Amino acid sequence: MGNASRIAFALAFVAGLALSLFYTWVVDPVELINTYPALMRSDYRRDWVRMAALSYLADGNLERARARLQNVDRQTVAAGIEALLEEQTAAGRPAEELRRLATLAQAAGVQVSATWNYLFTPLPSPTPLPPTLTPTPTRLTPITPSLTPTPTPTPVRPTPTHTASPTPVTFTPTPTFTPTPTPTPPLIFRLRPVEQQQICESNLPPRIEVVVQNERGEGVSGVEVWLLWSGGADRAITGLKPWKGAGYVDFNARWDVPYTIGVGELGLPLVTSLQLKRCPAEEGQPSLIGSWHILLKPQQ
Amino acid sequence: MFWRKVGLAAALGLMAGAALGVAIGWWLWPVEYVNTAPDTLRRDYRDEYILMTATAYEVDGNLHRARERLRLLNPADPVAPLRDLAGRLAAAGGDPADVARLNHLLEKLSASSPLPTPNPLSEDG
């Protein structure tokens, strides 16, 4: 290649590069769809927080409010709730409303200014622990002798003594028994796929539905679910479609792409190489691309 | 012959540059979007936005603000997204309380005429 050709190549290369960059960045940039609240402008994010907090005041659904706030940075959540606290205080709203906002701040894991500390006084835990199904062993405590036997609600009963007169009964605590509760890891670390079902529906686009449940089979909202594929990822929070259940989330999917489903902030992979498949079709009928319904539950 | 070679080199250069530009612009280094508006939210977040607008209205009673929020989704017809979600939720057997909130706001917005948009050129604008 002569010098002239080299120069022509170089000039044309630069021109081609410039033209195509102009086209891809200005004329037809990557389409802006499917964003999430964290990407919104700061004033819109603040308004999102405000609406989530006001909605919590209206519906009292803490799990839903947490799910809504999970997508937004902590700083914005704290600022938004604090601004609303100030506004509600100035408007002379009842203390109960302020307390609920403080509860929401706690549940969302954000710290509001110390001015509001008084609102945090005895409050029920925002997420009450589920009752344990297996009775926990308790240390036996000495029973004060009494002449009139009264029924006690303690599950442990003394061995009945067949004596006519009531005698003081004393239980000596067993020194060897030390109840050591085993710490349960957070739900997302215990989740496993327990069910995978193909859904064949002609009226809906192919998708991947994920349902997150706890040990008792109840949907869990506020869990971050990731759909990952080669070169991309999508994220959603369970509970944003309450009419489909608290633990429900879905993603649109393509039939020719293998997906991984992950959970939590780190996107811990639980299902890999998940690919949409054709549904079995009747003779003469076109076959549909089926969707997947995945159930994630803690492993026993 | 000389000009043919030069032309060929220029054509090759143009194609190579354009290909590289497309790869950079769409895959390697695409336009990064931040500071987006609610109208670009994914459908489920968009639905939440509408629902929260209706629920917040229940608490603050600020109809103008509710309309402005919905206007961010559809400037031409702010009520349309609300109507659409109310219909979809009702059809899908959604929470009756949510459907009622949406319908309530829908009713209020339909009954009221929108406030005039402030003229940015006016003195108090």
Topology readout:
The complex is a heterodimer of chains A (300) and B (125).
Chain A: H1 3-27, H2 42-59, H3 62-69, H4 74-90, H5 95-107, H6 187-190, E1 191-199, E2 207-212, E3 224-229, E4 232-237, E5 248-252, E6 259-263, E7 268-274, E8 291-298
Chain B: H1 2-28, H2 43-60, H3 63-71, H4 79-91, H5 96-111
From N to C, what is the helix and strand string of chain A?
A: HHHHHHEEEEEEEE
Spans where pLDDT lies below 50 across 5 or more residues of chain A:
122-177
Bin the helical content of chain B.
55-70%
Multimeric state? heterodimer
Profile the largest sheet of chain B.
none
Q: For the terminal residues of chain B, how far apart are their CA atoms?
A: 68 Å
Q: Shape of chain B, please?
A: rod-shaped
According to DSSP, the number of beta strands of chain A is 8
N/C terminus separation of chain A: 71 Å
Structural account:
The complex is a heterodimer of chains A (300) and B (125). Among the domains of chain A are: 37-120, no CATH class; 187-298, Immunoglobulin-like. Chain A contains 6 helices and 8 strands. Chain A has helices spanning 3-27, 42-59, 62-69, 74-90, 95-107, 187-190, and strands at residues 191-199, 207-212, 224-229, 232-237, 248-252, 259-263, 268-274, 291-298. In chain A, a hairpin with a 4-residue loop joins strand 6 and strand 7. Chain B has 125 residues and is mainly α. Chain B has a domain at 38-111. In chain B, helix 2 runs antiparallel to helix 3, helix 2 crosses helix 5 and helix 4 runs antiparallel to helix 5 (96-111). The longest helix of chain B is centred in the first third of the chain and has 27 residues, at 2-28. The interface between A and B is large, with 54 and 57 residues.
